[in-house]
Amino acid sequence: MRRRLACCLTVLALLASAAPVFADVCSLENLPAATLLLPYFEVDLDNPAGLTTLFSINNASATAALANVVVWTDLGVPTLGFTVYLTGYDVQTINLRDVFAGALPRTATAGQDPGDTISPRGHFSQDVNFASCTGLLPFQALPASFVAHLRAAHTGRFSAILNGCAGQSLGDGRARGYVTVDTVNRCTLLTPADPGYFGADDLAGTATTQNTLWGDSIYVDPANDYADGNNLVRIEAFQGAFKPGDLTFYGRYVGNSGADAREPLATTWGSRFVDGGTFSGGTDLVVWRDSGRTVRPFPCGTQPAGFPLRFAREITFDEEERPALFPVFPQPPDLTGALPAEANRVHIGGPAFPVPFSFGWLFLDLNAPGSVIPPIPPSAATLRQSWVETILKAQGQYSAGFSATPLDSVCQPIQTEPGQ
Amino acid sequence: MDRLYELLAQWRSASALFFLTLLLAVSATPAAWAGACSLDDRPGATLLLPYFEVDLDNPLGRTTLFSVNNAAAEPVLVNVVLWTDLGVPTLNFPIYLTGYDVQTVNLRDVFAGIVPRTASATEDPADRLSPRGLYSQDAGFPGCAGALPPGVPPAGFLEHLRASHTGRISPITNACAGQSFNDRVARGYVTMDTVSRCGFLTPRDAGYFGAGGAATNQNVLWGDFFYADTAKAFVDGENLVRLKADPAAFGPGSRTFYGRYVGGSGADARQPLPRIWAARFASFGLSPDDGTDLIVWRDSGQIAQPFPCGQRPPWYPLLPSSYQAFDEQERALQVPTFPILPPPPPPSDQLPAEANRFTVGDERFPIPYKFGWIYLDLAIPTPTGLGIDPSQSWVGVVMKAQGRFSVGFGATPLANGCPPPPVVPFFN
């Protein structure tokens, strides 16, 4: 009883300080949020000096926070969840190479760290006890069998724990996927895909609506002298703002009930691409897509239902705004299958995404294909959220990454597309 | 590299009581201005390049590139304005964009007298300069005859331009307009507005905003920018700041982006920027170039004028209202005292200009920590007589390591620009 009371007091204290920082529903702002999305990661497991992905989780509140970090394969199967405890205004950085080696961030709440040796607090921070974390925090090294599962699942190989495959097999030894980070009120092994994770309010479920998290991510490729970074996608929660039938960020896991209260992302994007001049290494796109379904492990050698994903429409413009469309000869290929997974990175102008121009911009309608082209406005059945980032590279020298330009939001889907 | 990872993995930081107060204060205020103040990357009616640098002496040295894109099928006319780092406009030129057009600009070219050659349908009936695509529209705009395509500025004007942006005396105004760092690096910022006609007006001129004004409220512009230093193999980029226009949302007394130029009337209808930011920093210590730079654009609240060289504009330097830095162990640079006292005034040369770039930990911002984060409240301490608080700003982060890596992204605003400024008792 005392433990429960303590838990409730902690949660109430959390809620008291979890003030939304002047935000608009569906605005895709860069303000602190209740959920962070790292839309894509890669870790070269075969080369310790190769490509990896780092990210940080920051707490914008004086009150301590628990963050549930969930690692998903590029096809959207959750493989690992772990809790990060943040004292007030704390920062935790994570190198995903460490995670794939079995080393999770070592944090602990006041109850597991009374001497403040693991998660010390500063002059202005608060430090509290989450009793649910006893026995879980600080994390010990993951067992070898689980590490083997993790590495297999994210490289498209058979996982003994999942008894199947969970991701794309691209045959290059690179772990791929994406990461979500949610504010929660207790240590948990649940993920957003599990029942009970979201409740009617911050006390009923595990996830909370504290808009206090911020952070950034960096792709580092020492072998090729590349590093580029961006802010993590901040997905704000607005309790009561979404009703049944609304598409929310985790809508597919809550039956589109709006229970997660997370704002959805955009559906249509504009992104420049450059292949030459300062950026001789060309342009990559990082694209996260909502498949609209709960993805389960599947027999290796097959694809989960609904995959490969397709999207509604793509138009490549050159810098004279000529679209690469019929009657251009040769007729450009259909690229609407070029982003087949939930988490994708594709080289513009490469075999997977050929474009006839060296400079220009892409119009991407990443909704699901409909029966009408152009599919405007998207129907409820085809509405899909997404996130796009642009990475421009100079061969062997440098790269620069930033978000693509959202041309709508799920709350106000695009009404007019080029050519209409 | 392992050392880099180790240091990256040690990134942890800290806190301050004023944040709790800030959040509580903010939570007590209703969220107004729904939709008009969103700090998102959707297309806007104004784009802001918050800071630029061009090394005029070294063709392979630092330069700044940007693009301006039209998200609509309809053509749009854009008024590009260069401002010195102290907020004096020095040059404006129009860019005509057919539907879905994109125009890239290297500011090195502009300082060499080469401005983008575009032309609307009237000046370019054969579609040689600004051809239109299959889905694009092409039209004419009033006032553009003779203005489009832009000609090459006379040599005397180019000398004025270079002098104004390097803090030297302009042969045209016989005055200075920017900070002097005793180098030949041109500094400043750029705004781009959708307009209805070609002209020589800038946002500070009467007749630019409002009924019958030149500026329009077409939220169709998007773009990005890059700082390129070919000699050092550093490039980092970010989206241009997109400012949405919403004439229904702003009126007299509203804070707006160009509020200082419209007397706080809200006539520009542009959303304001925030004033409170959080930015991470890291200095890996692996090479002399390691560290974190902050790009900071600030609204001085003033209509800046050229000034006698050797003197300073009366409002200079701008001061940060307050700032706090924390290390990875959450130790604060300015520790709390009892009774609570205001922090010592910041040095007068911190973030003194409208467009600034500084290295965290240098003599202007002497922070003893290698890793951590900074809280910046960029309010203007002195009232400007506008009747509104013009305090607004934009902050970007550039991290560099090992002479090989450079990463740039926007800092985190802790509120958008519309609400009344939150009270931070610790500092007030």
Task: Tell me what you see in this structure.
The complex is a heterodimer of chains A (420) and B (428). With 420 residues, chain A is mainly beta. Chain A folds into 2 domains: 2-253, no CATH class; 268-406, no CATH class. In chain A, 7% of the residues lie in helices and 29% in strands. A 5-stranded antiparallel β-sheet of chain A has the order 4-3-6-1-10, covered by helices on one side. In chain A, strands 2, 5, 7, 8 and 9 form a 5-stranded antiparallel β-sheet that branches. The termini of chain A are far apart. Chain B is 8% helix and 28% strand. In chain B, a hairpin with a 4-residue loop joins strand 8 and strand 9 (234-239). Chain B folds into 2 domains: 1-30 and 273-428, no CATH class; 42-271, no CATH class. The longest helix of chain B has 11 residues, at 17-27. Chain B is globular, with a radius of gyration of 22 Å. Chain B has helices at 2-9, 17-27, 107-111, 155-165; strands at residues 46-55, 62-70, 76-84, 89-97, 102-106, 185-195, 221-222, 224-229, 234-239, 241-243, 276-282, 291-298, 322-327, 355-359, 371-377, 393-401, 405-410, 412-413. Chain B is mainly beta and 428 residues long. The chains are: A mainly beta (420), B mainly beta (428). The interface between A and B is large, with 90 and 89 residues.
User: What overall form of chain A do the CA principal axes indicate?
Assistant: globular
Total of helices of chain A: 3
| Helix-strand pattern of chain B | HHEEEEEHHEEEEEEEEEEEEE
Q: Quote the beta fraction of chain B.
A: 25-35%
Low-confidence stretches of chain B: 1-34, 423-428
The low-confidence runs of chain A, each spanning 5 or more residues with pLDDT under 50, are 1-22
Using DSSP, what is the number of strands of chain B? 18
- Major sheet of chain A: order of its strands? 4-3-6-1-10
Output the number of helix runs of chain B.
Answer: 4
Per DSSP, what share of the residues of chain A sits in E-state strands of 2 or more residues?
A: 25-35%
End-to-end distance of chain B: 44 Å
Taking the sheet with the most strands of chain B, its summary is: 5 strands, antiparallel
- Mind summarizing the main beta sheet of chain A? 5 strands, antiparallel
Oligomer: heterodimer
What is the total tally of β strands of chain A? 18
Give the helix/strand class of chain B. mainly beta
